[in-house]
Design a protein that fits this description.
This protein is mainly α. It is built from five helices and two strands; from the N terminus they run αβαααβα. Strands 1-2 form a two-stranded parallel ribbon. The N and C termini lie far apart (about 65 Å).
């Protein structure tokens, strides 16, 4: 009688476990990639930012120099405007206005050029990053990779693997 009861219990347990086993076989693998970290730590992103910095550093230095010149001119005007002749003061104010207008134009153009270049460079890095994500996902059997989430369990974070893939598998 006890063996019969045990056999019935075992059969019931197997019947109950069958859907769980089937569900476990069909479970999806989910991964997460931290895009911000990827753009900070991956070598292609660092290289792109370095290229941008070197390409725009001279213009940035020129703008800083112009800004200092403007500041000196303004201080000179404020300090000496009472002792200058009307013609000298008007001449210096005109020169200050022209330099300020030129500075503002160059600063605006610099910002626009920098943003456009940054977007171009980072778009290329994003393309490479997406390809690296696909490679890691396919190699490890992930069904979905998320890049934005309110919370993630660190066990599904594959950012480090993607960074290594982007850096040439090093």
């Amino acid at each position: 009688m006890n063996t019969r009861l045990a056999l019935s219990a075992l059969t019931a347990a197997l019947i109950a476990a069958a859907p769980l086993a089937a569900q476990a076989q069909n479970a999806s693998r989910i991964g997460f990639v931290n895009s911000d970290r990827l753009m900070r730590e991956a070598q292609p992103a660092k290289s792109a930012l370095s290229r941008i910095e070197s390409d725009f550093s001279k213009r940035d230095q020129d703008l800083q120099r112009m800004s200092k010149d403007l500041q000196r001119m303004q201080e000179d005007l404020e300090r000496n405007s009472m002792t200058m002749s009307e013609a000298d003061r008007a001449k210096k104010e005109r020169a200050f206005s022209e330099l300020n207008r030129d500075y503002q134009r160059k600063k605006r153009e610099f910002g626009e050029d920098l943003n456009m270049r940054r977007n171009e460079e980072l778009a290329g890095v994003l393309d490479r990053a997406n390809e690296a994500i696909r490679k890691v996902a396919q190699a490890e059997g992930y069904d979905i990779i998320l890049q934005e989430a309110v919370y993630i369990n660190p066990s599904i974070d594959i950012t480090e693997k993607v960074i290594k893939e982007l850096n040439g598998g090093k």
